[in-house]
Fold this sequence. Notes:
Blueprint: E1 2-10, E2 13-19, H1 29-36, E3 46-51, E4 61-66, E5 72-73, H2 77-91, E6 95-100, E7 103-109, E8 115-118, E9 143-144, E10 147-148, E11 151-154, E12 158-163, H3 172-180, E13 190-198, E14 201-208, E15 212-214, H4 218-230, E16 237-242, E17 245-251, E18 257-261, E19 264-272
Parallel strand pairs: 2-3, 4-6, 12-13, 14-16
Antiparallel strand pairs: 1-2, 1-19, 3-4, 4-5, 6-7, 7-8, 8-18, 9-10, 11-12, 13-14, 14-15, 16-17, 17-18
Amino acid sequence: MRIPFVKMHGSGNDFVVFDERAAPLGLTPRRAAAIADRNEGVGCDQFIVIERAPEGSGADAFMRIRNPDGAEAGACGNATRCVARLLAAETGRDRVAIATLAGVLPAAIGADGTISVDMGKPRLGWQDVPLARPCDTLHLALEAGMLADPAALSMGNPHATFFVPDVAAVPIAELGPLLEHDPLFPERANIGIAQVLAPDRIRLRVWERGAGLTRACGSGACAALVNAARRGLGERRATVIVDGGRLTIAWRDDDHVVMAGGAAISFHGTLELGDFPP
């Protein structure tokens, strides 16, 4: 059976997007991991399936997110913008709502194509991240190599942000996997390495759980902005510079975090589902 997909990216964070609203396609976790493989599949940072919205949710669709290892994730800001672009084109509206495991995320498409997503409120309690034991989430007793003293929170998925004087000096490919799997994080964690360039500018790289080093991480950018503001290192609105571009993040007075950036279609394609293990 040949099935269509869309390859998209937000600031270089790339996705393979499938639509299961009409009928299930048999996209199991194992099959998702095989399709996400960059050598033998299509290749992506996250595997996205659009499903029917849960009844009574008020959303236009549900977005299921899988990491390249097949494990399910609760949130992905860049993917939310990509799906919002597809739904806006389909409905002809400039405002849509996308249900996720982290809740319903409203999105707005600007005249210039910029897409803003309300990522909801950051969750700051140690149980919310979650952590394995009670901790002050503003200062975790955690270190690896040159990295120490991160701040943690959940943006629908777990994040730990390390603040450093020079992002380029950090061997993130070496330290990221160690920290992602630290026993303090029972569900693993996304590891952000942030350098505050100015009160309204942050340089960020993220080692994503289950995906490794990606060119952008929308929820990680939200976490970096919030954690910087919590520590008094920056303002509640900033440009976050990632390897693949720039995101604008604002932590509003109502405690919601809004992320804005672009969403691009790389290409449309089809694949033979039987070529991938069920």
